């Protein structure tokens, strides 16, 4: 250390310490460079920083708006889906009610048709019964006239007498069979 102090005192330049004029010139150059940077570069960096900050904040706001819009659309979709489900339920209920009405109408029509067929069958049976009774009466009348003519021994060929005899016989049969039917 002593040697350094001695060398510095002698006027020889120090390899570690720069010369005073170099320090001043370096300091002026540094201050000039700092001034230029401060005047031209720093405002641009600040401007870029501000723009980027605004862009990021705008992106965040835009993302928040889009999120809100997405939630709103989701709620609308849910509402529409609920409305569609309610409409489908109403349609199913209406179809079920309509099916019940159609089933009831068909049942009533079937009952009416069955009643009509039964009534028609009864009418046909009554008509056939009346026809059979008329045929039986005619046959019975002829048979009765034959039997009566055999028993009496005389001919009952006379039409008027025969009709009167047959009609009396049939009236007696009807009067005997009428209390039995009741």
Please provide a written account of the structure.
This protein is an all-alpha fold and 182 residues long. It is built from three helices and no strands. The chain has helices at 2-10, 20-152, 159-181. Helix 2 (20-152) crosses helix 3. It is rod-shaped and about 200 Å long. The model has no long low-confidence stretch (mean pLDDT 83).
Task: Report helical residue fraction.
Answer: over 70%
Largest sheet: none
pLDDT below 50 for ≥5 consecutive residues: which ranges?
A: none
β-strand amount:
under 5%
Average predicted local confidence, pLDDT: 83
Q: Helical region count?
A: 3
Helix and strand pattern: HHH
- CA radius of gyration is 66 Å
Tell me, briefly, the overall form: rod-shaped
- Strand pairing plus helix content: what structural class? mainly alpha
* C-alpha termini separation: 160 Å
Number of E-type strands: 0
Quick summary of this structure?
By secondary structure, the chain is an all-alpha fold.
Topology:
Elements: H1 2-10, H2 20-152, H3 159-181
Question: Keywords, please?
Answer:
182 residues; mainly alpha; 91% helix
């Amino acid at each position: 250390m002593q040697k350094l102090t001695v060398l510095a005192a002698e006027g020889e330049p120090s390899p570690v310490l720069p010369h005073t004029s170099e320090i001043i010139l370096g300091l002026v150059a540094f201050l000039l460079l700092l001034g230029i940077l401060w005047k031209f570069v720093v405002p641009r960096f600040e401007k870029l920083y501000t723009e980027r900050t605004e862009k990021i904040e705008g992106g965040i706001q835009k993302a928040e708006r889009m999120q809100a819009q997405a939630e709103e659309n989701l709620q609308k979709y849910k509402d529409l889906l609920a409305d569609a489900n309610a409409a489908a339920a109403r349609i199913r209920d209406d179809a079920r009610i309509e099916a019940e009405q159609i089933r009831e109408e068909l049942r009533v029509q079937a009952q009416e048709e069955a009643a009509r067929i039964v009534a028609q069958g009864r009418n046909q049976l009554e008509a056939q019964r009346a026809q059979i009774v008329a045929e039986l009466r005619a046959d019975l009348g002829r048979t009765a006239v034959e039997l009566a003519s055999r028993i009496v021994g005389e001919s009952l060929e006379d039409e008027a007498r025969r009709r009167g005899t047959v009609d009396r016989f049939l009236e007696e049969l009807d009067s005997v069979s009428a209390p039995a039917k009741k």
